[in-house]
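From the thread on structure requests for the teaching lab: each student submitted one protein with a one-line request. Submission from student K.M.:

"Model Chitin-binding protein from Streptomyces cinnamoneus, tokens only."
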Amino acid sequence: MRKKISAAVIGLGAACVSVLSTVPASSHGSPDSPTSRQVYCANGTVSDCGEIQWEPQSVEGSKGFPSRGPADGTICSGGNSRFAELDDPRAGGWPATAVTAGQNYSFRWKLTARHATTDFRYYLTNSHYDPTRPLTRADLDPQPFLTVPYGGRIPDATVTHQGRIPSGRSGKQLVLAVWTIADTGNAFYACSDVVL
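Reply posted by the TA:
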């Protein structure tokens, strides 16, 4: 009888480990307006995305951008090699959200785990940006076009920020969104391809 109970307990434990190992980590957040690369991977619009398709909310890297943070060429993945597919420009083939230069836009994040927040910052690529090459700091305006300070508060599960898309751009560009966490050394990064 003891052998049967022991075998049942071991079997149940193995089943629990198997089930738990297939559940994605409950992580953090990603923007869905404009749609980010990680969301396109998670919803199946873009294929061959690797692990990011199961963890679109997990693009976490060092904070302090642009003076610190992910290296050039790894910005869209937050410097996280597990999500390197986000840095691949796919010859400029990422789907893009249509936005209008000089107009207001609602930038929205869905957060799966909420954290004490320093701020959300939004950067736009400049006239030198080439969508067929990995993103570098030289491709971005040095200052964010929108900064939303939080002063350590915890945001809601869905956050929307109103901001004006900068003028003087046209064609395919990229919005880099950075959510800086107040009580850790990290931030969350997301690249959203746009057409102006």
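TA comment: The chain has one domain: 27-195. Residues 2-27 have pLDDT under 50 and may be disordered.
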